[in-house]
Amino acid sequence: MGGVVSGILIVAAVIAVGYLAARLRILGPEVQGALTRTAFYITNPALLYTVVAGSDIRAALGTDAPLALLSAAAVGLLYWLLSFLFFRRPAAETAVGAMASSYANANNIGIPVSLYAVGTAQHVAPVLLVQLLVLAPFYLTVLGLVSGTRISWNRMLLQPLSNPMIIASGLGAVVALTGWQVPELLEKPIDMLAGGAVPMVLLAFGLSMAGRAPLQKDDGRTETLVATFLKIAGMPAVVWLLGRFVFGLEGQHLLAIVIMAALPTAQNVFLFASPYGRGMTVARDVILCTTVLCSGSLLVIAWAAG
């Protein structure tokens, strides 16, 4: 439990620095975008490459990827059912809510939390791959169909192949599976860039939290609260049940994947909803609420495991 608590406090401290920097106007609004783009295209791919290259990729994909897919499908279907029975929201808004309840911030928040809480980030890559290769295309297809927007199938099929984090993960998987020894002149610069990934994304996220007021009246407050509960409580419970009784996991491995399930909603959900103009408020508020509340969820998980 001590490692999880320390991890949460370290991550929260760096996020707080970014938040205070924005509130005190030390950094201009353009800095967040610059940090985010640098992390997305350079430092985070470098970190993912090093994590995947040094991990047991066969073991991770054999359990973590199927578990991530099954749990995301179960929680997303539960949100769809609740929306059909109680919310009566249009299909596009329901799709965004379902995605917000099951799409974890495995990259920006998952990597630092996993590193500091359980000592490894090897469980991040399978979750990220499932989300980018399966969940994102699925929800984008649904949004395109129900929003009346023409779908570019070529772009959708090629989108994962143009994502730098997917490319880096793929290269890392090749190295891990083949056992190839990367030359030091290539490995050291990658390691240096990877070292800047965690503080950079946490600072950017702290900057993004300044000046937001969630849960405004008549802005899908009920849907936001339900999706938030499913993300930080329902999904970890589903993963624990599946991991323990279906996949037979226990100990540190089980703790790591439950922590991944308890991560806040990814900012990609808002990005995916934006072009269609549907469910954007709910997506934004769920991201903020789950980010604030996930610390409590992670502490409960650490206490239960400890």
How would you characterize the overall build of this protein?
It is built from 14 helices and no strands. With 306 residues, it is an all-alpha fold. The radius of gyration is 19 Å and the shape is globular. The termini are close together. The model has no long low-confidence stretch (mean pLDDT 83).
Task: Chart the SSEs and their pairings.
Elements: H1 2-23, H2 30-53, H3 57-87, H4 91-100, H5 110-118, H6 124-146, H7 153-158, H8 164-178, H9 184-195, H10 197-208, H11 221-245, H12 251-261, H13 268-273, H14 280-305
Helix pairs in contact: 1-5, 1-10, 1-14, 2-8, 2-9, 2-10, 3-4, 3-6, 3-11, 4-6, 4-14, 5-12, 11-12, 11-14, 12-14
